[in-house]
Amino acid sequence: MPILKQLESRELVVVTGKGGVGKSSVAAALGVVMARAGRRVLVLEIDPRESVHQMLAAPPSDGEILRVAPSLYLQNLQPRQVLDQVVRERLRFQAIFQRVLESPIYQHFTEGAPGLKEMAILGHSLLLVEGKVPGADKFDTVILDAPATGHGVSLLAAPLLVSEVIRQGPIAHMTADVATFISSPERSGVVVVTLAEEMPVSEALELRQVMDERLDREPDLLVINALYPPFTAGEVDESADPLTALWRQRKDLNERELARLDEGWTGSRLELPLLAVEQGPALTEALAERMDGS
Ligand SMILES: Nc1ncnc2c1ncn2[C@@H]1O[C@H](COP(=O)(O)OP(=O)(O)OP(=O)(O)O)[C@@H](O)[C@H]1O
Ligand SMILES: [Mg+2]
């Protein structure tokens, strides 16, 4: 089965990779593809710089769930907001949660506890696909544009980390549910995005290794983004044409790194070209078309 068809049936797709490689662009395009395939999809962005709305021609979400196309929704949240929301959703009695949220102990704890914010992001994703977020209908798929800070693995390994520290109460409950959710290959998937450049490829290979060691899981798909196009203009004197020389150098780098991925990466991959298309919805559409056609 084509890999995108497999991903379509997942409830959670985590899009991760090094900073600036095109995670948000890929998450937005994947959202478009899946929504068109009939899934009710929410793209969840955890980034105060909020950029996915521009890619989907929508206003900023500002924490709300926004419908951006038939069957396609967007939400941007801050990790702290997510945590508060999860506490609110889990502790249903108003008087208690307000006191918890305002208590200095809670605030101190949530800033310091390793993995807790990441856990809350995954916990919120789980509530979204279970239809348990107040005021929101159930989603078939959440596409999580993973936060740029920290390693992708810190998000995926968060349930392990948190379960070592918190053993009782609503958070412990949520942790157990989330651990089951993200360790199930039927329910969740991981897409690693990279450029065919040295640092992003190293990070992608490392992520794969750590996922294997710590989570006993492989990423489902590698997206190699923004590849330089083949050159078709024939023989050119590169010493007289700096643009061609630049293109050749970038293309060579791409080829070297693709060869390194051939060695170190087994499993599905999708190559996307560097597109001379205006950033925003036009680029999202062009990427979605390529994803869909592959
Ligand atoms: N295939 C592509 N062709 C042309 N431009 C691209 C392509 N993919 C991404 N871009 C552009 O590259 C820039 C970085 O992409 P994007 O914001 O998706 O990366 P990111 O991994 O989410 O970054 P960050 O880690 O900062 O969140 C954006 O300006 C985007 O429009
Ligand atoms: Mg981004």
Architecture, CATH level 2?
A: 3-Layer(aba) Sandwich
What are the segments in which pLDDT stays under 50 over at least 5 consecutive residues?
A: none
Beta-strand content bin: 15-25%
Query: CATH superfamily membership, which one?
Result: P-loop containing nucleotide triphosphate hydrolases
Mean of all residue-level pLDDT scores: 89
Task: Offer a quick outline of the entry.
This protein has 294 residues and is of the alpha/beta class.
Describe the protein's architecture and organization.
There is one protein chain. The chain has 294 residues and is of the alpha/beta class. It has a single domain (3-292), classed as Rossmann fold (3-Layer(aba) Sandwich). The chain is 51% helix and 16% strand. The protein has helices spanning 3-8, 23-36, 52-55, 79-90, 94-102, 104-112, 116-130, 152-156, 158-165, 169-183, 198-215, 242-264, 281-292, and strands at 12-17, 41-45, 65-69, 72-76, 141-145, 188-195, 221-227, 269-273. It has an eight-stranded mixed β-sheet, sandwiched between helices. Helix 2 packs across helix 13 (281-292) and helix 7 packs across helix 10. The longest helix has 23 residues, at 242-264. The structure holds adenosine-5'-triphosphate and magnesium ion. Adenosine-5'-triphosphate is lined by residues 19-25, 47, 51, 148, 225-226, 272, 274-275, 279, 283.
List keywords for this structure.
single chain; 294 residues; alpha/beta; eight-stranded mixed β-sheet; 13 helices; 51% helix; 16% strand; binds adenosine-5'-triphosphate
